[in-house]
Amino acid sequence: MDQEAEVIENPDNLEVVAPEDAHVIEPLIFKDREVGNSSLIVLNQEIHSIDLEGLWRNTKLHICADGGANRLFEYWKKHQRTEEFVPDFIVGDLDSLKADVQQFYEQHGCIVIPQYTQYASDFMKSMRLSMIYFQSETTRGLLYEPIESNKGLEFIQLEPAQVSVDMYILNGLGGRFDQTVHSINQVIQLAQQFVQNSFRFITPDDIVFLLRKGVNYIKYPSKQSFGCQGNPVCGMLPLNTEVVLNTRGLKWDVLHWPSSMGGHVSSSNALVGISGAVIECSNDMIINIEHSFN
Amino acid sequence: MDQEAEVIENPDNLEVVAPEDAHVIEPLIFKDREVGNSSLIVLNQEIHSIDLEGLWRNTKLHICADGGANRLFEYWKKHQRTEEFVPDFIVGDLDSLKADVQQFYEQHGCIVIPQYTQYASDFMKSMRLSMIYFQSETTRGLLYEPIESNKGLEFIQLEPAQVSVDMYILNGLGGRFDQTVHSINQVIQLAQQFVQNSFRFITPDDIVFLLRKGVNYIKYPSKQSFGCQGNPVCGMLPLNTEVVLNTRGLKWDVLHWPSSMGGHVSSSNALVGISGAVIECSNDMIINIEHSFN
Question: Thiamin pyrophosphokinase thiamin-binding domain spans which residues (chains A, B) (predicted)?
């Protein structure tokens, strides 16, 4: 029953029709308008080369993971605008958060939630907080009450069917490589349990997100909207498990194409679909698309 | 027969004896002395926060992958030392190499080898060139003759049993995420065929390398030699396939511990062995260790 794998080189512009039953993903939606149940999670690395103001305005909930608050503060201090961009929450084991930063944000309405357990990372705690916030008014209300400081967030129950959050993650990739792999792995894991969530890592170079098993249609206003020179470069990255790929709208479309680490990986590919591309995958996988805020 | 997985928290300093049959890896050897058959491969990203001079002096062969030559040139131009650090070879499809950089390096003895095929990346071409150079005087000699410009390097035969090169890779990780994954995947693939090679990605934050299936002993002069505050942080990253881990000398040692993407991954762990640690893995895997040149 195995069909032979094929690679097809395409011209630079291709009209691609969205399949009827496709899972539609709009990776650039946050540049256009406010996203419904959306959170911005800032992790502890230097912030540079992104439109933080736009990202902030178009996401509803703003969370700093521990020392991520220091980075946010430093960034806006340079622009003398710290008071305009106060996170809703700071969460984590607080081994990095600076006292003056904590004090400033608390004075401006931010809630600090210590969670000292070392069996979850500050990133995991931030993702859990996002889901608690958007699950219901009841669970959201609990975030404004005292929370047990070791792992109180874990005691607040989440019902996967009720949770649907679009998470935008800043500073999750790059830096120490185990942190990069940890970030990706946490998203892979959480996505298995919470199938309605979406995840976008925003980096200075690209947008990195999870593709669900099945037929995905990546929709965008135009290729130019990614802000790159030429076709936006992309890669389909089977970091979870082996995947069989079928695509339509890439510079090098693949058909019945098995992809795995240690085997074939489609990197340095590119989007040529004029306003969308189809990626069908036999398992969840990670994709990145080149993107610049310039 | 399955033994139960265990995690053991250790004190901050632990005497760890090297097992007799272990594969000994010295990740910091390049800081101490010149490494035998070693190549430095410079890829096309900005160079920063590393001791490039030391790395250059302690590696024998210096290769720039296409636009990596621009980065090398820019870096040394700032220090007005471009003439002291001329690469032996520039290889790739040459779509990024600047004409003035090419001219300067050629005038100073560098050999430029165009390889236009798009079925291999400039990184792959650089690794292949390294192996050809060190395999034998005969194959090395071919590099100084004209080489077919599409994929001539692929026509030079390599015998895995005769090839043993330590490759140091600069700018292979970070930047666009598909490039990072591509770099890792190429190393995983090449290591399967060329079992005597070793690979080190050198980044501003860490050293990333491949652990071979079996018992590995990571040997270092002292924990301080990694240049970090406190214990050097590390992660065992099963990016290839599932691995069962047994360790001795980490802050959180693991026993009979299955690790996989989508499952458990040991990140933000740390070396506590005073001058070494043992990592036994049931398959090849990637490890990173925090490292600073400061």
Answer: 214-287
pLDDT tens sequence across B60-92:
999 999 999 999 999 999 999 999 999 999 999
Decide if B186 is inside a domain: no
ipTM of predicted assembly, 2 dp: 0.95
Closest CB to A262: pick one of B177, B241, B288: B241
Tell me A207's DSSP state. Answer: E
From the candidates A95, A173, A178, which should be mutated to test the interface with B, based on the most B CB atoms within 10 A?
Answer: A178
Q: Which of B201, B239, B265 sits opposite A182 (nearest CB)?
A: B265
B116 CB neighbour count, 10 Å cutoff: 12
Instruction: Identify whether B272 is part of a domain.
Output: yes
Q: Same structural domain for residues A9 and A76?
A: no
The residue from A94, A128, A163 where one domain ends is: A163
Whether B267 has its CB under 8 Å from any CB of chain A: the answer is yes
- Give residue-wise pLDDT tens across range A275-286: 999 999 999 999
> What range defines the domain where residue B130 resides?
38-163
Pick from A146, A163, A180: which residue ends a domain? Answer: A163
Do B10 and B59 belong to one domain? no
pLDDT tens-place string over residues B208-260: 999 999 999 999 999 999 999 999 999 999 999 999 999 999 999 999 999 99
CB-based contact A268 B121, cutoff 8 Å: yes
Would residue A183 count as lying in a domain?
no
Q: Which of A117, A177, A209 to mutate to test the interface with B (most CBs of B within 10 A)?
A: A177
Residue B73 lies in a domain: yes
Cβ count near A79 (within 10 Å): 11
Tell how far CA B230 is from the center of its chain. 24
Would you give the distance in Å from CA B46 to the centre of its chain? 17
Same domain, B245 and B132: no
In terms of domains, do B224 and B265 share one? Answer: yes
Residue with tokens 């609990």: A142
Within its chain, how far is the Cα of B184 from the centroid? 9
A292 shares a domain with A272: yes
One-letter identity of residue A84: E
Judgement on whether residues A145 and A117 belong to the same structural domain of the protein? yes
Beta bridge mates, A136: none
A50 and A130, same structural domain?
A: yes
Phi first, then psi: give them for residue B282, nearest 5 degrees: -85, -5
Please classify residue A154 by burial: count the beta carbons closer than 10 Å to its beta carbon, then call 0-12 exposed, 13-18 middle and 19+ buried.
middle
The count of domains in chain A is 2
Contact present, A113 and A89 (Cβ < 8 Å): yes
